[in-house]
Amino acid sequence: MKNTIMALGSALLLSGTVTAQKVAFEEFDLDNGMHVILHNDNSAPVVITSVMYHVGAKDENPDRTGFAHFFEHLLFEGTKNIERGQWMKIVTSNGGTNNANTTDDRTYYFEVFPSNSLELGLWMESERLMHPVINQIGVDTQNEVVKEEKRLRVDNQPYGNLLAEVKKNMFKKHPYRWATIGSMEHLDAAKLEEFQAFNKKFYIPNNSVLVVAGQFDPAQAKTWIKQYFGSIPKGPAITRQTFNEDPINQTIKATYTDPNIQVPMVVAAYRTPSMKTRDARVLDMISTYLTDGKSSKLYKKIVDEKKMALQVGAFSFSQEDYGMYIIYGMPLGQTPTADILKECDDEIVKLQTELISDKDLQKLKNKFENQYVNSNASVEGIAENLASYYLLYGDVNLINTEIDIYRSITREEIRDVAKKYLNSNQRLLLDYVPAKDKQN
């Protein structure tokens, strides 16, 4: 009885925490097609202005990869009314910070200002959208910046090409097959007119969502939004091509040699469905079950108990059209990587044939409850989540309801999804090896 009361109390406490995290928002469209989301939060005197564009690496031409990421940099160069080199100075001199990031599916820009600088943030993002200066000096400058980033984060980074190699082998038709950072040769070969055309096609109001989150007056915000964004012309509708990959019916084998590493890595990667599907959420749970933390099944078994590996891990790389589930292991000493792979496979077979315990399922759900709370714990996180759920999922209110999907996942679903996607004939096996190690 005592345990029942304690469990009930914990459930009520958890329920209260999640309820307290519910995100209130308001959304509307401007006449030019720009979607606007407002989230008022008076807990701190800051405000975020952010714009997410529905353009990423998958929208590039195969012989001009890297454009979307390049624009992440290029659109800080300056505008008609913001001189070159002044963007960061304006932000920092007004007590703010800013940043941007790019994926295969979208590009996101944001500023965080003291709450009394909302108008400044809106003006700057409207300038980026309406009056960007795209000239040869900006292209040349950012070309060198991107090359240096690639050298630091990819070319000279241990295991830096892991994801690119997996994507290259997993996708044959879909643009997910190339790296987000793209090819330096493609960027070098591109003419200024190509960059200008890319901007004109994708960086338009009707291909974006504006989020204002934090402490602000909603009526005043709406007035400024219409003032600064309402007059920007609507762009032509974007026609997107659909790419359907053929099913993987037999194991794909590949090897990649990395001069930056000394310890080989074995990688097993499975193609999975869009992040918008229920199965993708189940795969998130499977990933957490197998390798999230030192108490996870694979870590305890392979690293702690059998001491076969320095590290094992797995993650769901979920995206708008397809995803990937990637498992990796780094051997300890002379352990053959094939032995690590067998241990991983044995644990997957258990998932496919046996139900995990009720205790393990509850532990998983508790972790996802915690992740849900943490993802909405800051106004910056809320702003990006609101933009993503609108632009990529088509449902802003998933910021409040997606956790219900995870709560409803059953042990049977975990078994069935593992059986559906995680089979040895449906995967890539990548030997990621040191330069002088051809692998055992």
From TrEMBL:
Residues 36-177 form the Peptidase M16 N-terminal domain. One of its GO terms (biological process) is proteolysis. This is Insulinase family protein. The lineage of its organism: Bacteria, Pseudomonadati, Bacteroidota, Flavobacteriia, Flavobacteriales. Residues 1-20 form the signal peptide. Belongs to the peptidase M16 family. The keyword Hydrolase applies. Gene3D superfamilies: Metalloenzyme, LuxS/M16 peptidase-like. One of its GO terms (molecular function) is metal ion binding. The keyword Zinc applies. InterPro entries: Metalloenz_LuxS/M16, Pept_M16_N, Peptidase_M16, Peptidase_M16_C. Keywords: Hydrolase, Metalloprotease, Protease, Signal, Zinc. It holds the Pfam family Peptidase_M16_C. Residues 192-367 form the Peptidase M16 C-terminal domain.
